[in-house]
Hints:
The structure holds 2 protein chains of 2 kinds.
Chain A lengths: L1 H14 L19 H23 L3 H6 L3 H19 L3 H7 L23 H29 L10 H21 L2 H13 L7 H19 L15 H6 L3 H29 L12 H32 L13 H18 L2 H15 L6 H14 L18 H10 L1 H15 L8 H24 L1 H7 L3 H31 L5 H27 L14 H31 L32 E2 L15 E2 L34
Antiparallel strand pairs in A: 1-2
Helix pairs in contact in A: 2-4, 4-9, 4-11, 6-7, 6-8, 6-9, 6-22, 7-9, 7-11, 8-11, 8-12, 9-11, 11-12, 12-13, 12-14, 12-15, 14-15, 14-17, 14-18, 14-20, 15-17, 18-20, 18-21, 20-21, 21-22
Chain B lengths: L14 H24 L10 H34 L20 H27 L22 E8 L2 E6 L5 E3 L2 E4 L3 E8 L4 E5 L4 E5 L5 E6 L4 E7 L11 E7 L1 H14 L1 H6 L7 E3 L8 E3 L8 E3 L2 E3 L1 H4 L6
Parallel strand pairs in B: 1-5, 4-10
Antiparallel strand pairs in B: 1-2, 2-3, 5-8, 6-7, 6-9, 9-10, 11-12, 13-14
Helix pairs in contact in B: 1-2
Amino acid sequence: MAIGISKTLDDVGRSGNEPPAPQTSSRPAWMSQHLGTAVIGAVAGYAFGHWIGNVIAAGYPNPQSNGENDIAIVLALVFGVVGWLAGIGAFNYPLAKIIGRAPAPEAPEVGWTRFFKYNLDHKVVGFQYMIGVLLFFFTGGLWAMAIRTELLNPTNHYFGPGTYIAIVSEHGSMMMMMATSVIIGPLGNYLTPLLIGSRKMAFPRVEAFSFWMFMAGYLVILTAIPLGGFPTGWTGYAPLQTQATAGMDSYLVGFIVIGTGMICAGFNVAVTIINYRAPGMTWNRVPIFAWSLLAVSSLLTLATPLLATACYFGILDRTVLTSIYVDEHGGSNFLWENLFWFFGHPEVYIMAIPGFGIVAELLPVFTRRPLFAYRVGAAGMFGVALLSFFVWQHHLFDSGINPDMRPLFMLTTELISIPTGFIYLVGLGTLWRSKIRLEVPMLFCLALYFNFLFGGISGVFVSDVPADVTLHGSFFVMAHFHYTIMGGLMFAFFAGIYYWIPKISGKMLNKRLGQIHFWCMFVFFNLTFFPLFFVGILGMPRRVFEYAHNLQVWNDVSSVGAFLLGASFLIFIANFVWSIYIAPKKAPANPWGSLGLEWQTPTPVPFFNFERIPVILSDPYHYDEQDPLPVADLGGGLVPVAAGAVGSVDMPGEPGIEGTDPGGSNG
Amino acid sequence: MASGQRTSGGRVAPHGKRIVGGWITLSVVFDLLFGFLVGPHLPPGRMTSSAGSQQFDIKVLFLAAIPVVVGVIGYIVYAVVVWRDGRPASFEPPAQVTARQSTRVQAAWIGITTCLTLGLFTFGTIELILPAGAGGGEGPAPIWTPASKTVLPIQVIAQQWKFTYRYPTYGGFETDQLVIPEHTPVAFHVTSLDVIHDFWAYQLGVKADANPQSDNVAFTTAEQLGRFVVRCDELCGIWHGAMYNYGQVMTKSGFNTWALTTEHKLAANTKLLPPFAWFYSPSANGAGGSYYGTNATYSKVQVYGAATVSPAQASKPRAG
C-alpha cells in the first residue's frame, strides 16, 4: 500500500501538466494477457466448474432422474466467465489492492494488440465494443435468416421443430443482448468524454470490465447451441423454462452475465456525464446525445438488476429445486412474467432512446440550423425513461392477472407516446426551413423517423386492450418491435457509425458505397418487416414453424427481403474494410462541418482527449450564425468568467488512470 | 445564443399553408378510402361480439393513425424536396433566421398529442368494459361480464401440445372438438396442465393465456355460423407451431343435438376423467400421468359478476 501511494505521488510530482507519452507495458511479453489467455482461462474455468458440479451433485436424485446435471452446467458457465475475466487480467488490479501490493504498471499501450487486451482507454473500449456488437449483430442476423428460411414454406420444413425453436430463441436472446449495448457500448464509451469535455470516463476499470462481460455473455449464450438449445424464446417464460434442458442454463447465466455488463456500462456513463462535465458544460449545453445516454444509462442501472434476480431465481428452480416459479408447490409463473417484463419494458426503451439521441444530435449538422426545442427533446427522453417503469403489464393483457389494472396500463402505455412525440417535434422542427444535406448519416436519420413512425403507431394499436386481444402474440407485435429496434435503433447506430468513423478511425467511409448500403438496408428492411404486419393481423402467431397456406405469399416476400437485408450488410462490411484498411482515405478534420466538441479534438484523439480541460462557451447547435465560434476554448484559463462560462462544475480530480497517471489534475 | 423569435419571413413561400392543406386533403382522402374500402373487411371479422368490437377498435385506430402517418411522412418528403441543398460541404446557415424554439408550436404539439392520447385511452377503456372484456382473458374472477344471465361455460384445457374442451353443463365430457352455439354468451374457462399456453380463437376474437393452476375466463357471443381456427399463441415448447385445431359455431338446436349426442357417446370416457374442476394438478404419485381436480369447491352454479348461471339456465340453449 505504502509503496503504491509513494509511487503515485512521485509520478504526479514529476510530470506536471504534460499528458503522458504512450508507453508500452513493462511486463515481459510472455506474461501479457490478451484474448488468447482469456479463452484459455474460460476453457479451464468451464472444465473446472463442470467437474466441481459433478462432484457435489452427481449423486442427487434430480440429476440422476433427468439425466442431466444442471448444477454442473451452471457452475461450468460461471467458472468459465470467471476464468475468462482472470485470463484477460480483469482481476490483477483489484487483487493486488486487496492483498496490499503495488499493482503492476498499466501504461497506455499503442499498436493493434491493445484491442485484444484489457484496456482502460475509453476510446479503445469503444472500438472493441463496436467490433463486439457487430459480431453479435451479424451472428443474430444469421439466425434470423435461418428463421426466414424455415418460414418460406408453411408445411415443408427445413429444420425440425426443435432446431427451429432453438434458432428462434437464440436469435431473440442475442439480438436483445446486443441491442441493449449497441449504442451505449461503442459510441457511448467512445464519445461521452469527448462530448462533455472530460479527459476520461469516470471508472475506466468498470468500463473495461463491462466490455469483457459483454463478450463473455456472447460466448455464454452461444453455448446453448452445443447444449441443445432452449425452447422459450428470449422471454424465457417460467414453467417452460423450468422444464427445459441444459441450454436453458446458458440463457439464465448469459443474461446475468450480460446484465452485469449492462449495469456497469450504464453506471459508468451516468457518473461520467453527471460528474465529469467540463467547466461551462451546464445542463442546458449538454449535447442531446449525452442527454439520451444519461437517460438510457439510468434505465440500464435501475432496471437490469431485476433481470439478474429473476434469472437467479430461475437457476435456483432448475438446480436446487426451489419452486419460486412452480405453481404446484406454491410458486407462480406470473412472478417470472412480472419480474421479466418489469425489466423488459424499460429495456425496450433502452433500445430506443439512444437512437433518438443520435438523430437529434445529427440533424442540426445536416440541416445547418439549431436543434429545435432542445429542452423538450431532453425532457422527452427522460419522460420516456420514467414512464417505462409503469407499463410492463401491457405484455400481460390476456394473461389472466388483475383485469381491473388494464385501463391503467393502457393509459400509461399510451402516455409514453407523448414524450416519444417530442422526438418527432424536435426532428420536424429542425427540418423546418433548413438546408438539408443528404449525406449518408442524414439518410439513416431520416429513415429512423420513417421507420419509427410505423413502429410507434403500431405500438398504439397493441396498447389498446381490445385491439391487443387480436394482435397480442402475433406477427404484428413482432413487426412492431422490429420496426422500433431494427428500424429505429439499428438505423441510428449506422448513422452514428458513418458520422463518427472519421473521428474514430481518421478515415472516411466511401460515400457511394454508403449510399448503396443505406438504400439496400432501407428498402429491404421494409420489404422484410412490412408484410409481417399483414401476416400478424391475419392471424399468424409468433414463433411457429407451421402456418396457414394463404399467408405464404407475404411470408415469402418477407423471407426474400430478409436475405437481401442480410446481404446489404456485406456492402457495409466491404465499405468498412475497404475504406479503413485496404484503401484508406484520410478524413478531413471536420468533414461534416460540425460544431460538436468532439470534432475540436485532433484526430486520432490523444490518450487524454484534451491537452487541458476545455472551457465550454456555448451549446453545440448555433449553426444559424455566419461564422460560429467554437463551442469550447481548449487553451484553458483564457476565457473571462462572463457568460456563465466557468464555475458550474468542479473539475474532475484525477483525469488519469490510478497509479500511472502522470498528467496534471488541474489543467 | 440565437434569438428565440419566429419569423414569418416576408416573401418566403407559404410552406405552412401548403403543408397543412396537403395534409388535410390527403388525410381525408386516405381515411375515407380506408374506412369504406378496407374497414368492413378488417380482421378479425364479425363472427362474434368480441371480434366485432376488436374490428371496430382496429378500424378507429387506423383512422386515427392515417393522418399522423400522412402528416409526418408528407412533411419530411416536403422538407427534403423543398429545402434540400445539393451542394457538397456547404456549411453556411439557411437564408432565413430559424427559431430555436417556439412556445406556440411546442404547446400546440404537446396539447394535441395529449388530447389524442387521452381520447384513445377513453375510447379503449369503454371498448374494453362494454363488450365484457372484449374477448380477453380476465382471470378467475372476471369483472366485465355479459349482461345475459344465460352463459354457457366451456372449459379449454391446454397441454403440450393439444387443446381439449370440457362441457360442464353436459356432464363434463371432454372432447377435442370445440363447438359453440350461436347467439349465446359463452364463457371460456382456460387452464393448462403444464406450461403457459394461449387459447386464441382467431375468428371468435378470443384470446386468453392458459396458465397452470389457474382459471382464466373470457367471454364472447357468436353472431355468425361457421368454422374458426384455434391456435396456441404463447410459446410452449418445440411443437408450439403445430398446436392448433378447428372449431365450429352451430345453431342453438344443432349445438344442443351435438352436445347431447357427444355426452352420450363419451359417457364411458367421462367416468374415467378426473371430476370437473376449474384447474387440475398432476397426480402426486407422478409417473401415471394422471391429474386431479385441485379445487373441490366447484359447483355447477357459477357466478359471473351479477349474472348467475345455473344448470337449468345454462341449458336454455337446448330449447333452441
